[in-house]
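Input/output pair, single chain:
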Amino acid sequence: MDGALAYAEPMPRPAPPSPGIQLANRTFAFGGAALLVALVGAVSGAASVGLLCGACGALLLWAGFVTKSSSIGADALNRAWDATSRGRLAEAQGMLDRAAATFQLAYIRQAIDPQIAE
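Output:
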């Protein structure tokens, strides 16, 4: 045995999910719990609790969707900015082109356009 296994490169750890995606997942969980409470309230005869929790649950689910969408867009912009700052302009241009075709949120699009112009 020549000891090659003892000096092998360690496997890289996968990147943790971004804070925005973690927040979106928590928001989805709270929205789902609120909808569950709304369902229980509606079945048990507490219509006002059911309506209030149903509205809050729907709002939380919508907020989670928007947060997750914008977080994914921000991550893509950050990766493109990093590639630009490291001099990999062709790679950054490809990332920005894919982001421009993918993301439809207005403020993400407003952030993509100036980076493409540079």
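The chain has a mean pLDDT of 81. The radius of gyration is 22 Å.
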